[in-house]
Amino acid sequence: MLHFDDIVFGPIFSRRLGSSLGVNVLPSKGKLCNFDCVYCECGWNADGAVPDRRFPRLEEVETALRDKMSKASAEGVPVDSITFSGNGEPTMNPDFAQIIDVTLRLRDEYFPQAKVSVLSNATLLGREDVLRALMRVDNPILKIDASSQQLVEKINRPVGTYRLDAVLEQLKKFEGNFILQTMFLRSQEFDTLAPDALDAWMDIVRMLRPRQVMVYTIDRETPDRTLMKYTVDEMTAMVQPLIDEGFDVQIRG
Predict the structure, then answer these.
(1) Which of 44, 161, 175, 203 has its Cα between 20 and 30 A from that of 105?
(2) Burial class of residue 59, CB neighbours in 10 A (0-12, 13-18, 19+)
(3) What is the pLDDT of residues 186-233, one digit of tens each?
(4) Are the beta carbons of 241 and 202 closer than 8 angstroms?
(5) What is the four-CA torsion angle of 87, 209, 174, 120, rounded to 10 degrees?
């Protein structure tokens, strides 16, 4: 399974974001997330549990970012995106909002053309500091994989309390200025593109009106070995109504 030991790594090529400088603001060993998704490339939470749960602090992240960005700039290495992902949910870092402030400042200094992107499961939007930080970045890429609470429990397996309706209310505050990310997949227990689930998901898209929708399917090894992926053609056919309505839908196999 995929893990990141460094605070800043890459740049690596991302099929969605181009030349991407990765930022991991979670503990360097193991995995820490308030979801335990059946498809997570970092594996199950239990398998990634380690005694050291120390988050990188603001000063450490700033030093790592400056070192990596100054070196890349001096060597002429392109950076299209500075991307927060890493070993779980990045907004769980207590310094997340301040880290975003520092990242935007360093981006403007070294790679002013680069976009700051955050891949988040949107669970902590109820925290005002997290909400405002995500509103400041160029690409808040926020996840809604399941169109019902029942599907959320099967696919994302939240740790603690999670209410889909409450998260959707928080997403409305972006007034469409975010990117919605959704994984399409199926197993013997569920199918995110079953007619009722698909119709409900499209209604969510219509309600939130994100500036872009990213739909994708399994690309790497998953902890649940029973999962099945969709083809690009299958996904395109399923989301065609949204495309016809003028939504910007990016589809990745």
Answers:
(1) 175
(2) exposed
(3) 998 999 999 999 999 999 999 999 999 999 998 888 888 889 999 999
(4) yes
(5) 0
